[in-house]
Design goal:
By secondary structure, the protein is an alpha+beta fold. The protein has 26 helices and 19 strands.
Length: 720
């Protein structure tokens, strides 16, 4: 279809003076615009001399913004002119079209600006999906290159500066991030978290009036040296977190006051029925004897003049373990009561209790009733719980509240407590005047923090000091060391919360490599194109879309790159949500994924780090397959699992959390012939995730697994 060239000239090249439209053709959803330069002569860009001698011409193909859901392509004829100056080193030069497109570009300037905005907003994969819907489809790497080519924005010295640390390698290497307290944007990154680099940065960037920081002594010293006139503001979150730990210490010191009779609460009744045989700590068992000996050993070494770090190195223990024994006045203070662990049977225990009270004690019948309701329980679970109910004496008194529960009652807002919790707390405070005084101090500090009453902090500290309560008195006196910053934090509205947010955002955007005021990579959908080390799982014979990543002689499945910027780890409670996000990207349902795609996304999830215990086996990945029977027909199961170790308040092992991505197949002969296989990988050992995944990729079972599609893919979490 031909069209009026004059009309299209004003439509497509509005505001561009040096281009004329020669012809327009619209076919198959594409509008082809043929154009050429309008000027008879062009000035040479170097010397400025004009020339009208044409040497030759060539054609550029430029992609432009779509029109009425049709792609627009400009076929631009570009002339090369001969320079008429005799002494000019350049004999020919191309006709410039500065208003239309940059040299060598395949997009018009206006389309390039749109791609930059899309790349900044959505980055690679998400941006590529959006451009496909808008009619100018481009690849994800094109968007990333457009973003990377943007110049660094100029950042001035902020009036309000946020300071916080982050781990480049947890427990070993830490750096400091500086943010603008008003815009919450990253300003700079310092190599360490010592006072020297911060003081030097402040000295070379005068003008900082307020410094929001945590209560680290190095940051306080650096701020005092680098900006002595600036106001330092302590973090209110850490203040409330500190008083929570102090209250827990105070409650633990008055544990005997918790053992009196308390009115039965709903939570207590649930706890008593959930674990009726639970009791207090065994003071005569082997564990108690071991703790008694360890407590005596630590205090003996302390009496000899050894430091706590020296004791930890000498005994080969963790520093936190030595600190726990050193702070305990008696070895009994290191013991704790056992807490019931959650179970899949928990939601159905009230039903079993009602049926048991009604006289139905047949385990088979109760198990059949739960199975008919699609309850994910086993016969052994029901049998064990019914046996526990039979062992409970009638009208057994509820156990006393735990230290942690009473601490929660004291530190939570009174309006959030239920009637049962208020009654139980009132009974505890009536038996213990010291805890009643501690509750008054906590409420007073909460009023100061909530209503910004920092000027009343000295009176609060004096009152707490006069009460001489364990934990609280030390906390109050510790505030005096940083009194000005704490008072400012409890008075001004400024807070390091924006800096904490920058740390968390960088943790989620795993391809972001920090550089002052510059976006170096993309959100978590895309592998980092530069300066990132990607972990990859090798699967022979698999061809995947790995554009922009390095290739080996065999095709590789790329895993999520390791975090090279801030590494403040996510809580374990977010792990299951993260796994589901990895396995269900975009609109593709989980059931449509094949084994290679599931393995790729699980390894990406496996490269993300979470806040687990500091032991080599606290965070591990498990690859296993085999034929099993889940109380029914036998199935072949391919299981990708991640296991986290969870410690109790004293730092000792409590339980494991396992996240499973389970692929189930019909147990055909080829799969059953594979037998059983399992392989573990732990993050904090000397092994690398790359080596583990590469080793698995060398096995022959991939060729067999790839020939079958799973009948079911399950994602679930359990405690073991």
């Amino acid at each position: 279809m031909q069209a009026d060239a004059t009309f299209w000239d004003s439509l497509v090249f509005d505001g561009i003076d040096d281009v004329d439209v020669e012809a327009i053709t619209a076919a198959f959803g594409t509008v082809d615009v043929t154009a050429r330069g309008r000027a008879a002569g062009v000035a040479r860009p170097d010397c400025g001399c004009s020339s009208n001698r044409v040497h030759d011409s060539y054609q550029r193909r430029l992609k432009d913004l779509p029109l009425a859901e049709q792609s627009v392509v400009i076929h631009l004829t570009v002339r090369r002119f001969i320079c008429s100056t005799d002494n000019c080193p350049r004999r020919t030069f191309a006709e410039p079209f500065a208003q239309l497109a940059a040299p060598y570009a395949r997009f018009t300037t206006r389309l390039g600006h749109v791609l930059e905005r899309v790349g900044l907003a959505l980055a690679g994969r998400a941006g590529a999906r959006l451009t496909a819907q808008l009619g100018f489809q481009v690849g994800r790497m094109t968007l990333l290159r457009r973003v990377m080519a943007l110049p660094d924005p100029q950042c001035g010295t902020p009036r309000v500066l946020g300071v916080d640390d982050f781990a480049t390698r947890r427990g070993q290497t830490y750096s400091t991030v500086l943010t603008c307290g008003e815009t919450h944007r990253v300003v700079d990154v310092l190599p360490t978290r010592d006072s020297g680099p911060l003081a030097a940065w402040l000295a070379t960037h005068p003008g900082v009036e307020i410094i929001c920081r945590d209560r680290a002594g190095a940051y306080a010293e650096g701020a005092r040296l680098g900006a002595p006139t600036a106001i330092q503001v302590a973090d209110r979150f850490h203040l409330w977190q500190g008083i929570g730990r102090a209250v827990e210490t105070c409650v633990a010191a008055h544990r005997k006051c918790l053992n009196g009779p308390t009115p039965p609460t709903r939570a207590d009744v649930g706890a008593s029925t959930n674990d009726p045989v639970r009791g207090g700590p065994d003071l005569d068992g082997r564990r108690a004897q071991r703790k008694k000996a360890a407590h005596a050993l630590v205090h003996e070494l302390l009496a000899q003049g050894y430091s706590r770090r020296a004791i930890a190195r000498h005994l080969g223990w963790g520093l936190n373990t030595v600190l726990r024994y050193a702070r305990a006045a008696t070895w009994q203070d290191t013991l704790r009561e056992n807490r019931p662990r959650p179970s899949r049977l928990d939601p159905y225990k009230p039903y079993l209790e009602r049926r048991f009270a009604a006289g139905c004690t047949n385990v088979t019948r109760l198990h059949r009733e739960l199975i008919n309701e699609n309850a994910p329980v086993t016969y052994q679970m029901v049998r064990a719980y019914i046996a526990a109910l039979r062992a409970v004496p009638p009208q057994a008194p509820p156990p006393p509240p735990t230290v942690r529960r009473v601490t929660g009652w004291l530190t939570r807002h009174p309006a959030t407590l239920s009637e049962d919790e208020r009654a139980a707390l009132k009974a505890v405070l009536a038996r213990c005047p010291e805890l009643d005084t501690a509750a008054e101090h906590v409420r007073g500090f909460g009023e100061i923090l909530t209503h910004r009453l920092g000027f009343t902090l000295p009176a609060w500290i004096d009152a707490v000091d006069a009460s001489q309560l364990p934990g609280l008195t030390n906390f109050a006196l510790h505030l005096l060391r940083d009194r000005d910053a704490v008072t400012a934090g409890l008075t001004l509205h400024w807070s390091p919360g924006g800096t904490e947010g920058a740390v968390n955002r960088n943790q989620e955007d795993q391809e972001t490599a920090l550089r002052p005021c510059r976006i170096r990579a993309t959100p978590q959908d895309d592998p980092a194109p530069v300066e990132s080390r990607s972990s990859s799982a090798a699967i022979p014979g698999h061809a995947s879309d790995c554009g922009g990543l390095r290739r080996s002689p065999r095709d590789r499945i790329p895993a999520r790159p390791r975090r090279t910027g801030m590494s403040r780890r996510l809580p374990i409670g977010q792990a299951q949500e993260r796994l589901r996000h990895e396995l269900s990207p975009g609109q593709q349902p989980l059931a449509e994924l094949d084994v290679d795609e599931v393995w790729l996304r699980f390894v990406r999830f496996g490269s993300q780090r979470f806040d687990t215990a500091g032991t080599p086996d606290a965070d591990g990945l498990l690859f296993q397959y085999g034929t099993h029977s889940f109380e029914g027909p036998r199935v072949f199961t391919l299981d990708f699992a991640r296991q986290f170790e969870v410690n109790d308040a004293s730092g000792e092992h409590d339980h494991y959390i396992q996240l499973h991505c389970e692929l189930r197949y019909e147990p055909v002969l080829q799969l059953r012939a594979l037998g059983h296989f399992e392989s573990w990988f732990f993050h904090d050992t000397d092994d690398e995730l790359d080596h583990w995944t590469d080793g698995l990729g060398l096995h022959d079972f991939w060729a067999t697994l790839r020939n079958f599609r799973p009948t079911e893919i399950r994602v679930y979490q359990e405690q073991v």
